[in-house]
Every structure is written in structure tokens, then in C-alpha cells.
Amino acid sequence: MKYCSSRGLESGLSFRDVLFAGYAKDGGLYVPEEFPKLTLDELKSMAHTSYPGLVFEMARKFISEQEISSVQLKDLIDNNIKKFTTPEVVEIKQLNGELNIVELFHGPTLAFKDLALSVVGGLLNFYLKENQQNITILVGTSGDTGSSALMSVRGEEHTDIVVLLPHGRCTRTQELQMTTIIDDNVHIYRVEGNSDELDEPIKKCFHDESFVANHNLISINSINWGRVMVQIAHYFYSYFRLCGEVGEVVQLLVPTGAAGNITAGCIAQKMGLPITMVATVNTNDIVARTLSCGDFSVKGEVVKSLAPAMDIQNGQPSTPGDHANEKHVDEKR
Ligand SMILES: *Cc1c(COP(=O)(O)O)cnc(C)c1O
């Protein structure tokens, strides 16, 4: 599989290229050049596959064999998914009648982000080992992205991770999750100020091209294709567990912040999975306004809600390749 920019000015990139990149150079997002289409028979043959098995199936479709062999890919996925507390990873609970809850929080930091980041950590590490390279991941967070990214790369030889968290603005649990990880490659800074102020030094680092090159600085924000790719698997898994018969339509309601998760659902649908989706947002409704009437404008400040991971109000990258957008996407997490 090759990758291109959603704005069309770049093409022919490898999975590795896009895994280590942020925005495309033309300001677009990196996406596969095509979405593999599954027939009904293929869907049926996958219906009893385990969750880790489905992550493998999806990754295999989007990463060419020349890049990672099937044995290596399977090992890498299994080793990183081991950190989940339930063997099936995703649990589905029936509420009443036809209503079910898909539980995506059984990972090491209890955040949905663990599903994708645990595997992305493994993928990064695979290429780094292979090429004997080192990277520095720089994350600004006030919640679950920081903890989840840390857990996925702690102790890895070829990766350093630097996390800035705003003092007093994360939950106590999240702050402890981050500050109690004692590993040589983990560097946590609790900083004074709000997440806008916290973002300033991060922005400066990413804007300094020679600094980025010298430290192999990368950001694993929610636009990272590796994260989206892994998230496709839980749609297939949920579908197979919930459909009466393969081929029937299942409707999924998706709590949506910056829409990375539901983007994976839309890709699953394009691949032929018979699902419909409803994006649900809270009072910070830029995604709903964009989808329903094309209104991508910023409407005031982000309102703090009981679901901070969904508190997104500004999805707009300020400049192409501007990792500062990470703030808008991840700041309240
Ligand atoms: C990250 C997250 C979301 C939002 O996901 P997006 O991909 O940004 O739409 C919603 N709920 C929880 C619990 C999350 O961790």
C-alpha cells in the first residue's frame, strides 16, 4: 500500500514515511492511495477473528509485506496488546433490548487512546530498531494522550519521550499516571500555565527545523495514520459481535472530539463493513457544525465538560505541518 496527501500534491509514500510524519507538506493529511474493498464472503470469513487478529488483518492490508513481514507484524501486535487487562481487549456489554456498550477502556491507562497508541509504539520501535535510529516524541497534554503515549514507549531503547503537562489541570489520576513512570527514556515536565501557554515552547521546537532534524523530533497526534489504521479494527470487531448475520446493518454512535475515531469508522464503511454511524458531540460542536452545514469557524472558547476528551472547538491547523494543532486536538485530554 502506498500513501498520498489528501490534498493531492504528494503520492507514492510508504507506510513508514507517513507513520513518522505529521501533516503532509501541502497541509493535507496522509491517507492510503486506495481503500481495499472486502466482499461479503471475506467479511464472513473474518467474523470470528479475535480483536488482535483483526488489528493484524487491517494492518496487513495497509502495510506492504516488503515493509513488515506477517510474522513480524503479528508478533509486534500481540506483544503490545498483551498490556490490556482483558484478553479480548474490547468488551461489549448489553444494556437493554438492542442497545449495547462497546467498552474501549481496558488498556494500561484506562483511556481509549491505548487501543491505537499501544500498537503505534510497537510500529515505531520496529522501524527504529531496524534502522538503528532514535527519535524524540514531544507531547503536550493535559490528560489521557500523555499517559497513553508514555505507556506505549516507556523503556524503549530508541525512543525518548518528553511530555509537558499543565500543573493542576489534569486529573490527579492522570498526573500520577504520568509522574510515576520511572524509566530513563521518559521525561516529564509539570509546567505552570494553561495549555495555550504550555503549547508555546512545543510550537517553537517544531518550528525550528534544525532542532527537529537534530533530535528526530516527532509528534504522535491523532492525525497520525498509524493511529487511524489501528482504530479501524474495533469497528470490525464490534460489528461482528453485534450483527445478527454478516451483511446486516449495525448502527454505531461514536463519541466524537477531533473525529479521529469516527474517521476510522468511515474507512471501515468504505471497505465494505455494513455500518452506519452517528457522530455525537457535546457543547463543543465544531465537528457537528462542519458536517451538517460546512461551518468550520471557531465559536468562542472551549467549554469544559464532563467528557474533556471531546472538548474540541478548533480543528483548524494554523499552518501546513503546524504541530501546534496538537494543542487543539489534544489539549483537553
Ligand atoms: C479521544 C477520545 C474521544 C475523542 O476521539 P476523537 O478521535 O478525537 O473523536 C472521545 N472519548 C474518549 C474517552 C477519548 O479518549
Topology at a glance:
Layout: E1 3-5, H1 15-19, E2 30-32, H2 40-46, H3 51-62, H4 70-81, E3 91-94, E4 100-103, H5 113-131, E5 135-140, H6 144-153, E6 159-166, H7 172-179, E7 186-191, H8 195-207, H9 209-215, E8 217-218, H10 225-242, E9 250-255, H11 260-270, E10 275-280, H12 286-293, H13 325-330
Parallel strand pairs: 5-6, 5-8, 6-7, 9-10
Antiparallel strand pairs: 1-2, 3-4
Helix pairs in contact: 3-4, 3-10, 4-5, 5-6, 5-10, 6-7, 10-11
Pyridoxal-5'-phosphate binds next to helix 11.
Structural descriptors:
single chain; 333 residues; alpha/beta; two-stranded antiparallel sheet; 13 helices; globular; disordered C terminus; binds pyridoxal-5'-phosphate
Helix content: 40-55%
How large is the radius of gyration? 19 Å
Unreliable segments (pLDDT under 50, ≥5 consecutive)?
Answer: 316-332
Number of strands: 10
What is the overall shape?
Answer: globular
Helices and strands: which structural class? alpha/beta
Helix segment tally: 13
Q: Alpha-carbon distance between the termini?
A: 32 Å
Oligomer: single chain
Bound molecules: pyridoxal-5'-phosphate
The side-by-side strand order for the widest beta sheet comes to 7-6-5-8
Please tell me the overall pLDDT: 89
Provide the succession of SSEs. EHEHHHEEHEHEHEHHEHEHEHH
| Beta-strand share of residues | 5-15%
**Biggest sheet: strands, sense, closure?**
4 strands, parallel
